[in-house]
Amino acid sequence: MADQIRVLVVDDIPETRDHLTKLLGFESDIDVVGAAASGREALEMAARLIPDVVLMDINMPDMDGIAATEQLASIVPGAAVVMMSVQGEADYLRRSMLAGAREFLVKPFSSDELTASIRQVSARERDKQSRIAVTTMATAGPALNGARSGEPGEPGLIVAVFSPKGGVGRTTVSVNLAVAAATELGKKVVIMDGSFQFGDVGVLLNLNPKSKSIADLIPELEAGELESIDTFLINHTAGIRVLLAPPSPETAEMITAGGVKKVLDRLRADHDLVVVDCTSYFNDTTLAILDAADVILTMLSLEITSIKNMRLFLEVAEQLGYEKGKVRLVLNRADSALGIRVADVEHSIGRKVDETVVSDGRSVVYALNRGVPFFLSNREAQVSQDILRLARSVVGGQAQADTVDAGKSTQKKSLFAWR
Ligand SMILES: Nc1ncnc2c1ncn2[C@@H]1O[C@H](COP(=O)(O)OP(=O)(O)OP(=O)(O)O)[C@@H](O)[C@H]1O
Ligand SMILES: [Mg+2]
User: Fold this and answer.
1) Helices (H), 232-341
2) Over the stretch 178-197, which tens digit does the pLDDT of each residue have?
3) What is the pTM of this model?
4) SS3 state of residue 326
5) What is the Cα–Cα distance from 284 to 279, expressed in whole angstroms?
6) CB atoms within 10 A of CB 358
7) Residue 197 CA to ligand 1 centre (angstroms)
8) What pairs with residue 298 in β-bridges?
């Protein structure tokens, strides 16, 4: 059948190959077309069999799974690799993703996890192929402006605020962007703290860490009986709603990629804009957020480590099949030069920076210590104007003025612009 998913199994242990082949034999939409015992054999078989998905072990003699994945990209570019490993470390995951793998399974995994991953990567690859076929690749996003946002019944926009390096201002920008979109652009906005282990959104907004969090919401959504998510969201006086990260790192470990996807689907159904403050490392939950996002605001700063990681991330984004307009580069503290110029950064990463936000330690730290977003406490500051420009560029917007109106009455009027 044309829409069968053709899978090639690659593992040096014969029992594992047999087991996986048998397991997948029960799935009517999956067809195991071959099984290879090494990276080299995998390349030879893939060239012949043109699989849709390659289930690849990492540790194998002769050529390991990472090297084989790298070479596979030029031999069968349409094949999506699901990497399997007994080691789940972030470094393995990152190296696999850089080599071009689309998914990462840590052994032992359940047959449900396995089949879900195969279906997911294959659907994503098909989707990517059809997009390549029909579009002439629009830059930035007309889709990001106006149309989706604000129309009742239309799903809202998911904006992931990500950076491949910590401490570059993701939480600061996420929170203020959310507030700007709500108060100035009249959007119904929710911010989700996607930094599940050490989330700071609640701190910046001065919220009670004992409030309900995503860890309470996921089981309810998975049970399928939840009518309203309102009791899991905090209505903040800044005009936004907040979905907090779990209260402890142990609870954070229970959060799965599937759960995150459900939460995002639900949040986007109820809001114009969903801003997600992400962590800086790749794991399956971060990937689920980045996949679901319409826009990834990728933050960087004028530091050599930030620039290096950005280069790596842009390669991963390409491997993941994200179209160019989805990833937007935001340079934070753009004026704090310290020897590196914006042009140097652009040259080094081979791409223009899309948006900049100035450095303003006074406003930012003052606001942080008071638990009030600077967009509210210091609206006339350049840093607030930069955030508003960013908000407009992401969600489009009805606000006419190009500069921020510092008037208190405007602020009050537009607070709680959503119902
Ligand atoms: N534009 C700015 N001007 C001045 N200071 C800033 C600016 N943006 C962020 N900062 C400061 O930089 C520090 C890091 O910011 P923030 O916590 O938002 O980064 P992050 O990427 O979320 O970090 P983490 O990796 O801890 O999650 C904070 O002290 C914040 O106040
Ligand atoms: Mg943060």
Assistant:
1) 249-252, 257-270, 284-292, 304-319
2) 999 999 999 999 999 999 99
3) 0.69
4) helix
5) 11
6) 18
7) 17
8) 162, 329
> Which ligand gives the minimal distance to the CA of 360?
1
Q: How far is the CA of 365 from the centre of ligand 1 (A)?
A: 9
DSSP state string for 68-120? HHHHHHHHSTTPEEEEEES---HHHHHHHHHHTEEEEEESS--HHHHHHHHHH
In tens, the pLDDT along 218-274 reads 999 999 888 899 999 999 988 999 999 999 888 888 899 999 999 999 999 999 999
Given a cut of 70, whether residue 318 has pLDDT beyond it is yes
Residue in 193, 360, 364, 388 to alter for ligand 1 test, most ligand atoms within 8 A of Cβ: 364
> 353 alpha carbon to ligand 2 midpoint, in Å?
21
278-292 pLDDT, tens digit each? 998 878 899 899 999
Tokens, residue 138: 């629009």
108 prior amide bond cis, ω within 30 = yes
Helices (H), 166-280: 170-183, 201-204, 214-223, 249-252, 257-270
* Among the listed residues 387, 356, 393, 418, the one whose alpha carbon sits nearest the alpha carbon of residue 144: 393
Give the Cα separation of 209 and 263 in Å (integer): 20
Ligand 1 binding residues, C-beta < 6 A: 163, 166-172, 195, 200, 280, 332-333, 357, 359-361, 364-365, 368, 383
CA dist., res. 196 & res. 288, Å (int): 13
pLDDT tens track for 193-221: 999 998 999 989 989 888 999 999 999 99
Beta strand pairing call for 327-332 and 355-357:
parallel
Query: Atom 19, ligand 1: which residue's CA is nearest?
Result: 169
Q: Which residues contact 225 (CB under 8 A, 6 or more apart)?
A: none
Q: Which residue has 């503290």 as its token pair?
A: 333
With the CA atoms of 335, 180, 166 and 158 taken in that order, what torsion angle do they form, in degrees rounded to the nearest 10? -130
Contact between 278 and 90 (Cβ < 8 Å)? no
Residue 27 and residue 323: Cα distance in Å, rounded? 31
Distance CA 278, CA 272 (A): 19
pLDDT beyond 50 at 149? no
Rounded Cα gap, residues 33 and 49, in angstroms: 7
194 CB-side CA count, 13 A = 36
R_g (Cα) of the chain, nearest Å: 22
Neighbours of 259 (CB within 10 A): 19
